[in-house]
Amino acid sequence: MAATEGDEGTVSLVDVLEEDEELENEASAVLGGSDAEKCSYPEGYVKRQALYACNTCTPAGGEAEAAGVCLACSYKCHEGHELFELYTKRNFRCDCGNSKFGAMECKLFAEKEKVNAENLYSHNFFGLYCTCNRPYPDPEDQVPDEMIQCVVCEDWLHGRHLGCSVPENVELQEMVCELCMKKAPFLWTYAACIAGWSIIIFLRCLDKKMLQGSLISRAVVAYYQDTEASPSQMAECRLKVLQTSGRTREESGAVFWPCGWRSKLCSCTSCKRLHVETKTAFLLDESDTVLAYENKGKTTEQEGGGDGRDPLMSALNNLNHVQQLEIIHEYNDMKTELKDYLQRFAEEGKVVTPEDIRHFFEQQQGRKRRRADASQYYCS
Length: 380
Prior knowledge:
Strand content: 5-15%
Number of strands: 9
Strand order of the largest sheet: 3-2-4
Distance between the termini: 52 Å
Helix content: 25-40%
């Protein structure tokens, strides 16, 4: 049952459980592909990893240079510090403890070079985002909006600052901002022919011959059918094929691309050189995508990869066998009682308030004290 107007601070049990599961899945996806115990520095420039910037050690507006730290260092070296969560970045090497941090040394891997020359930084490392150069969340911005990451510069932009409408189609998963499109202008040719289309739907339509003729040129049709073409046909530059299609689009605003669009980019020698010159060679690598990284994280969690340690079990390892059994017994009792307690709210369609949760744990504390008193009386 939805909370009625005026029921501030209340939510339905279903909402709580669904939100908790969604947040847990997102965390597993983002963090599951990174190691929470070992500094990633020895791995070199990691293809993609979760990163953080420490505003305590390298504050914005100060003399410090932009720096990023890996997941493990955010836990072990910067616990209690003010951190900016950067989500994931590509080809980055952990800076923790290098010259940008002054006298501070990394607790996990101290032997580091002074700087990581190949790392790329942006205003994100000082907690600022978008073309508006504002923090997120922004206490001065009362306009509800979503932040979308450009897959080229990896900056996060407000939907209203993209210069285009944000599509609702779930298959449009990657965005290239206008500034990055202008730095790699050949992408406008691809955008005119494939951006905004779902490749799966497009190919199905081709099978039904719905797109032959007036809707789109035969050059583009041939481009989408090239997966079954002979090697001699595929040797022709795909970009040049699209350039002969006659299709154009206004070269302004961000561009949203359909799932699988990277596989349709030409990888001939000339185009590879073009990608290198515009620093977009990673677009030819489908495993570079955030989606691929998240899927890797989910798979790692499901298969028990990585350290695979549950926080409760880590704590139990420091106790003797008898203490472990006692703690596990208490934990299972509490979990069962909490489940039964919340189940009543679900069955009656009631909302769970903070007071309800507080009342439950007060009851738990009361029972624990009564058991302790009874035990002392029995022992005496």
